[in-house]
Amino acid sequence: MKTLFLATALFTAILLVGSVPAHGEVIEEIVAKINDDIITRSEFEREEQALIAELYRRYTGKELDERVKDAKSGLLRNMIDRKLLIHRAERMYDLEKMEALLLETFMENENVKDAAELERLLSQWRMTLEGLKRRLVEMYAPDEVIRFEVADRLAVGDKEVDAYYEAHPDEFKVQGKVALREIVLLAKNEKKDERRTEAREIGERAAAEDVDFAELAREISEAGTAEDGGLIGPFEKGELVDELEEEAFTLPVGEVSAPIETEHGFHIIKIESRTEDRTRALDEVREQLRNMLADRKFETAFEDFLERARQESTIEVAPKYRNRYAQKEP
Fold first, then answer.
1. What pLDDT, in 10s, does the model give residues 99-111?
2. Could you say which DSSP state residue 4 is in?
Protein backbone atom coordinates (compact mmCIF):
# COMPACT_ATOMS: atom_id res chain seq x y z
CA MET A 1 0.00 0.00 0.00
CA LYS A 2 1.39 3.31 -1.08
CA THR A 3 3.03 5.86 1.20
CA LEU A 4 0.61 8.71 1.67
CA PHE A 5 2.54 11.34 3.56
CA LEU A 6 6.08 11.40 2.22
CA ALA A 7 7.22 14.43 4.22
CA THR A 8 6.37 12.94 7.60
CA ALA A 9 7.95 9.62 6.72
CA LEU A 10 11.34 11.27 6.65
CA PHE A 11 13.39 11.96 9.75
CA THR A 12 14.94 15.04 8.10
CA ALA A 13 11.45 16.44 7.76
CA ILE A 14 10.82 15.98 11.48
CA LEU A 15 13.73 18.23 12.27
CA LEU A 16 12.95 20.85 9.65
CA VAL A 17 9.25 21.05 10.35
CA GLY A 18 9.56 20.61 14.10
CA SER A 19 12.37 23.06 14.84
CA VAL A 20 11.67 26.46 16.35
CA PRO A 21 12.65 29.59 14.38
CA ALA A 22 15.57 31.43 16.00
CA HIS A 23 13.80 34.79 16.06
CA GLY A 24 11.18 33.57 18.53
CA GLU A 25 7.40 33.81 18.52
CA VAL A 26 5.67 35.90 15.86
CA ILE A 27 2.08 36.34 14.79
CA GLU A 28 1.64 33.72 12.07
CA GLU A 29 -0.35 33.82 8.88
CA ILE A 30 -2.87 30.99 9.00
CA VAL A 31 -3.00 28.80 5.91
CA ALA A 32 -5.83 26.53 7.07
CA LYS A 33 -8.06 25.77 10.05
CA ILE A 34 -9.03 22.18 10.72
CA ASN A 35 -11.59 21.91 13.52
CA ASP A 36 -9.75 23.53 16.46
CA ASP A 37 -6.33 23.11 14.86
CA ILE A 38 -4.38 25.27 12.39
CA ILE A 39 -1.64 25.07 9.78
CA THR A 40 0.55 28.18 9.76
CA ARG A 41 2.44 29.61 6.84
CA SER A 42 5.84 28.82 8.40
CA GLU A 43 4.75 25.24 9.14
CA PHE A 44 3.51 24.85 5.57
CA GLU A 45 6.67 26.34 4.06
CA ARG A 46 9.04 24.30 6.22
CA GLU A 47 7.26 21.08 5.35
CA GLU A 48 7.34 22.01 1.67
CA GLN A 49 11.08 22.73 1.86
CA ALA A 50 11.75 19.41 3.59
CA LEU A 51 9.72 17.51 1.05
CA ILE A 52 11.38 19.17 -1.94
CA ALA A 53 14.84 18.66 -0.45
CA GLU A 54 14.15 14.93 -0.13
CA LEU A 55 12.89 14.77 -3.73
CA TYR A 56 16.10 16.45 -4.93
CA ARG A 57 18.05 13.69 -3.15
CA ARG A 58 16.04 10.97 -4.86
CA TYR A 59 15.36 12.14 -8.40
CA THR A 60 16.85 14.12 -11.28
CA GLY A 61 15.84 15.64 -14.61
CA LYS A 62 12.31 15.44 -15.92
CA GLU A 63 11.21 12.96 -13.26
CA LEU A 64 12.35 15.38 -10.57
CA ASP A 65 10.33 18.22 -12.14
CA GLU A 66 7.22 16.05 -12.25
CA ARG A 67 7.68 14.82 -8.67
CA VAL A 68 8.16 18.36 -7.35
CA LYS A 69 5.09 19.57 -9.22
CA ASP A 70 2.96 16.73 -7.84
CA ALA A 71 4.34 17.19 -4.33
CA LYS A 72 3.57 20.90 -4.28
CA SER A 73 0.06 20.43 -5.62
CA GLY A 74 -0.80 17.75 -3.06
CA LEU A 75 1.04 19.01 0.01
CA LEU A 76 -1.65 21.15 1.63
CA ARG A 77 -4.31 18.50 1.13
CA ASN A 78 -1.99 15.90 2.66
CA MET A 79 -1.22 18.14 5.63
CA ILE A 80 -4.91 18.74 6.26
CA ASP A 81 -5.72 15.06 5.89
CA ARG A 82 -2.94 14.25 8.33
CA LYS A 83 -4.46 16.65 10.86
CA LEU A 84 -7.80 14.88 10.46
CA LEU A 85 -6.16 11.53 11.13
CA ILE A 86 -4.37 12.87 14.19
CA HIS A 87 -7.68 14.19 15.53
CA ARG A 88 -9.14 10.71 15.02
CA ALA A 89 -6.14 9.19 16.81
CA GLU A 90 -6.70 11.50 19.79
CA ARG A 91 -10.18 10.01 20.17
CA MET A 92 -9.08 6.41 19.62
CA TYR A 93 -5.84 6.06 21.58
CA ASP A 94 -4.15 7.00 24.81
CA LEU A 95 -1.70 9.46 23.27
CA GLU A 96 0.48 9.66 26.38
CA LYS A 97 1.18 5.93 26.14
CA MET A 98 1.70 6.24 22.40
CA GLU A 99 4.16 9.13 22.90
CA ALA A 100 6.14 7.11 25.45
CA LEU A 101 6.34 4.08 23.17
CA LEU A 102 7.29 6.14 20.12
CA LEU A 103 9.96 8.02 22.05
CA GLU A 104 11.46 4.76 23.31
CA THR A 105 11.50 3.35 19.76
CA PHE A 106 12.99 6.56 18.43
CA MET A 107 15.83 6.49 20.95
CA GLU A 108 16.60 2.85 20.12
CA ASN A 109 16.64 3.53 16.37
CA GLU A 110 18.84 6.60 16.75
CA ASN A 111 21.16 4.92 19.30
CA VAL A 112 20.38 7.54 21.94
CA LYS A 113 21.55 5.93 25.19
CA ASP A 114 19.88 8.05 27.86
CA ALA A 115 17.87 11.18 28.66
CA ALA A 116 20.99 13.34 28.94
CA GLU A 117 22.12 12.43 25.43
CA LEU A 118 18.61 13.03 24.11
CA GLU A 119 18.59 16.46 25.75
CA ARG A 120 21.87 17.34 24.03
CA LEU A 121 20.50 16.27 20.66
CA LEU A 122 17.29 18.21 21.17
CA SER A 123 19.35 21.29 22.00
CA GLN A 124 21.29 20.88 18.74
CA TRP A 125 18.06 20.48 16.80
CA ARG A 126 16.45 23.40 18.65
CA MET A 127 13.54 21.18 19.69
CA THR A 128 11.87 20.53 23.00
CA LEU A 129 11.06 17.06 24.26
CA GLU A 130 7.37 17.84 23.95
CA GLY A 131 7.98 19.04 20.40
CA LEU A 132 9.73 15.83 19.47
CA LYS A 133 6.99 13.67 20.99
CA ARG A 134 4.37 15.72 19.15
CA ARG A 135 6.20 15.22 15.85
CA LEU A 136 6.54 11.49 16.45
CA VAL A 137 2.81 11.24 17.04
CA GLU A 138 2.19 13.30 13.91
CA MET A 139 4.38 10.85 12.00
CA TYR A 140 2.97 7.57 13.21
CA ALA A 141 -0.52 8.11 14.64
CA PRO A 142 -2.06 8.58 11.15
CA ASP A 143 -0.68 5.21 10.07
CA GLU A 144 -2.25 3.54 13.11
CA VAL A 145 -5.61 5.10 12.31
CA ILE A 146 -5.36 4.02 8.67
CA ARG A 147 -4.42 0.49 9.70
CA PHE A 148 -7.30 0.15 12.18
CA GLU A 149 -10.00 2.04 10.27
CA VAL A 150 -9.16 0.90 6.73
CA ALA A 151 -6.45 -1.70 6.12
CA ASP A 152 -7.45 -4.22 8.79
CA ARG A 153 -11.04 -4.21 7.53
CA LEU A 154 -10.12 -5.28 4.02
CA ALA A 155 -9.60 -8.79 2.71
CA VAL A 156 -9.26 -10.41 -0.69
CA GLY A 157 -10.52 -13.98 -0.88
CA ASP A 158 -9.54 -16.75 -3.25
CA LYS A 159 -12.80 -16.39 -5.16
CA GLU A 160 -11.99 -12.78 -5.99
CA VAL A 161 -8.52 -13.76 -7.15
CA ASP A 162 -9.88 -16.63 -9.26
CA ALA A 163 -12.54 -14.43 -10.83
CA TYR A 164 -10.06 -11.72 -11.79
CA TYR A 165 -7.67 -14.27 -13.30
CA GLU A 166 -10.44 -15.79 -15.41
CA ALA A 167 -11.72 -12.38 -16.55
CA HIS A 168 -8.30 -10.97 -17.59
CA PRO A 169 -6.40 -13.77 -19.37
CA ASP A 170 -4.33 -11.38 -21.52
CA GLU A 171 -2.69 -9.88 -18.41
CA PHE A 172 -0.98 -13.18 -17.65
CA LYS A 173 0.46 -13.97 -21.08
CA VAL A 174 4.25 -14.08 -21.29
CA GLN A 175 5.85 -13.68 -24.70
CA GLY A 176 8.54 -16.10 -25.71
CA LYS A 177 12.11 -14.80 -26.01
CA VAL A 178 15.16 -15.78 -27.99
CA ALA A 179 18.87 -15.24 -27.38
CA LEU A 180 21.29 -15.80 -30.24
CA ARG A 181 24.81 -15.28 -31.50
CA GLU A 182 25.56 -13.55 -34.79
CA ILE A 183 28.34 -13.23 -37.31
CA VAL A 184 27.87 -10.14 -39.43
CA LEU A 185 29.46 -9.31 -42.77
CA LEU A 186 28.79 -5.70 -43.69
CA ALA A 187 27.85 -4.93 -47.28
CA LYS A 188 25.42 -2.61 -49.04
CA ASN A 189 23.95 -2.45 -52.52
CA GLU A 190 26.37 -3.68 -55.22
CA LYS A 191 28.91 -4.77 -52.58
CA LYS A 192 26.58 -7.58 -51.50
CA ASP A 193 27.27 -9.61 -54.63
CA GLU A 194 30.98 -9.40 -53.90
CA ARG A 195 30.52 -10.87 -50.39
CA ARG A 196 27.75 -13.38 -51.02
CA THR A 197 30.09 -16.28 -51.67
CA GLU A 198 32.22 -15.32 -48.66
CA ALA A 199 29.11 -15.30 -46.47
CA ARG A 200 28.11 -18.76 -47.74
CA GLU A 201 31.56 -20.17 -46.97
CA ILE A 202 31.60 -18.67 -43.46
CA GLY A 203 28.11 -20.04 -42.85
CA GLU A 204 29.28 -23.56 -43.75
CA ARG A 205 32.31 -23.16 -41.50
CA ALA A 206 30.17 -21.87 -38.59
CA ALA A 207 27.81 -24.85 -38.89
CA ALA A 208 30.60 -27.43 -38.61
CA GLU A 209 30.43 -29.56 -35.47
CA ASP A 210 33.99 -28.83 -34.35
CA VAL A 211 33.74 -25.03 -34.64
CA ASP A 212 33.18 -22.73 -31.66
CA PHE A 213 30.66 -20.22 -33.03
CA ALA A 214 31.51 -17.60 -30.38
CA GLU A 215 35.24 -17.74 -31.15
CA LEU A 216 34.52 -17.51 -34.87
CA ALA A 217 32.33 -14.46 -34.26
CA ARG A 218 35.15 -12.78 -32.30
CA GLU A 219 37.52 -13.54 -35.15
CA ILE A 220 35.58 -12.39 -38.21
CA SER A 221 32.27 -10.68 -37.33
CA GLU A 222 32.18 -7.03 -38.33
CA ALA A 223 29.51 -5.98 -35.84
CA GLY A 224 30.03 -4.41 -32.44
CA THR A 225 28.84 -7.65 -30.84
CA ALA A 226 31.99 -9.49 -31.97
CA GLU A 227 33.83 -8.94 -28.69
CA ASP A 228 30.96 -10.73 -26.88
CA GLY A 229 31.15 -13.69 -29.23
CA GLY A 230 28.23 -12.28 -31.19
CA LEU A 231 25.80 -12.72 -28.31
CA ILE A 232 22.60 -10.62 -28.45
CA GLY A 233 19.22 -10.80 -26.76
CA PRO A 234 17.02 -12.04 -25.36
CA PHE A 235 14.41 -10.56 -27.71
CA GLU A 236 10.65 -10.82 -27.84
CA LYS A 237 8.79 -11.15 -31.14
CA GLY A 238 8.76 -7.85 -32.96
CA GLU A 239 12.10 -6.64 -31.61
CA LEU A 240 14.28 -8.07 -34.39
CA VAL A 241 14.36 -6.97 -38.03
CA ASP A 242 11.96 -8.97 -40.16
CA GLU A 243 14.68 -10.89 -42.00
CA LEU A 244 16.11 -12.24 -38.73
CA GLU A 245 12.87 -12.71 -36.82
CA GLU A 246 11.49 -15.69 -38.68
CA GLU A 247 14.75 -17.62 -38.44
CA ALA A 248 15.26 -16.66 -34.80
CA PHE A 249 11.88 -18.03 -33.73
CA THR A 250 11.80 -21.17 -35.94
CA LEU A 251 15.40 -22.42 -36.13
CA PRO A 252 16.00 -25.15 -33.51
CA VAL A 253 18.09 -24.22 -30.48
CA GLY A 254 21.78 -24.89 -31.11
CA GLU A 255 21.52 -24.81 -34.91
CA VAL A 256 23.20 -22.33 -37.23
CA SER A 257 21.38 -20.55 -40.02
CA ALA A 258 22.38 -20.08 -43.61
CA PRO A 259 23.45 -16.47 -44.37
CA ILE A 260 20.51 -14.11 -43.98
CA GLU A 261 20.58 -11.05 -46.20
CA THR A 262 19.58 -7.75 -44.55
CA GLU A 263 19.87 -4.06 -45.39
CA HIS A 264 23.36 -3.92 -43.90
CA GLY A 265 24.85 -7.14 -45.26
CA PHE A 266 24.75 -10.78 -44.19
CA HIS A 267 23.95 -12.32 -40.80
CA ILE A 268 24.70 -15.87 -39.75
CA ILE A 269 23.00 -16.72 -36.48
CA LYS A 270 23.09 -19.52 -33.93
CA ILE A 271 20.20 -19.93 -31.49
CA GLU A 272 21.47 -19.96 -27.90
CA SER A 273 18.14 -20.30 -26.09
CA ARG A 274 14.45 -19.75 -26.66
CA THR A 275 11.31 -19.80 -24.55
CA GLU A 276 7.85 -20.22 -26.02
CA ASP A 277 4.80 -18.04 -25.47
CA ARG A 278 2.91 -19.11 -22.38
CA THR A 279 0.26 -18.08 -19.88
CA ARG A 280 1.33 -17.80 -16.24
CA ALA A 281 -0.54 -20.31 -14.09
CA LEU A 282 -2.94 -19.05 -11.43
CA ASP A 283 -0.84 -20.49 -8.60
CA GLU A 284 2.19 -18.67 -10.00
CA VAL A 285 0.51 -15.26 -9.75
CA ARG A 286 -1.97 -15.78 -6.93
CA GLU A 287 -0.20 -13.78 -4.20
CA GLN A 288 0.90 -11.04 -6.58
CA LEU A 289 -2.68 -10.77 -7.80
CA ARG A 290 -4.06 -10.80 -4.26
CA ASN A 291 -1.74 -7.91 -3.34
CA MET A 292 -2.75 -5.94 -6.41
CA LEU A 293 -6.46 -6.35 -5.65
CA ALA A 294 -5.83 -5.45 -2.00
CA ASP A 295 -4.04 -2.26 -3.07
CA ARG A 296 -6.95 -1.30 -5.31
CA LYS A 297 -9.44 -1.95 -2.53
CA PHE A 298 -7.31 0.01 -0.10
CA GLU A 299 -7.01 3.07 -2.35
CA THR A 300 -10.78 3.23 -2.81
CA ALA A 301 -11.58 2.54 0.85
CA PHE A 302 -8.95 4.99 2.09
CA GLU A 303 -10.18 7.84 -0.10
CA ASP A 304 -13.77 7.12 0.98
CA PHE A 305 -12.66 7.17 4.62
CA LEU A 306 -10.84 10.48 4.18
CA GLU A 307 -13.77 12.04 2.37
CA ARG A 308 -16.08 11.11 5.25
CA ALA A 309 -13.57 12.58 7.70
CA ARG A 310 -13.46 15.82 5.69
CA GLN A 311 -17.23 16.06 5.59
CA GLU A 312 -17.48 15.47 9.35
CA SER A 313 -14.94 18.24 10.05
CA THR A 314 -14.73 21.99 9.69
CA ILE A 315 -12.04 22.88 7.18
CA GLU A 316 -11.28 26.47 6.22
CA VAL A 317 -8.48 27.34 3.79
CA ALA A 318 -7.24 30.90 3.40
CA PRO A 319 -8.22 32.33 -0.02
CA LYS A 320 -4.65 32.66 -1.31
CA TYR A 321 -4.02 28.94 -0.64
CA ARG A 322 -7.27 27.51 -1.99
CA ASN A 323 -5.68 26.57 -5.30
CA ARG A 324 -3.25 24.41 -3.30
CA TYR A 325 -6.22 22.55 -1.78
CA ALA A 326 -8.03 21.94 -5.05
CA GLN A 327 -9.64 18.53 -5.38
CA LYS A 328 -7.31 16.04 -7.05
CA GLU A 329 -8.22 14.83 -10.50
CA PRO A 330 -9.68 11.30 -10.45
1. 999 999 999 988 9
2. S
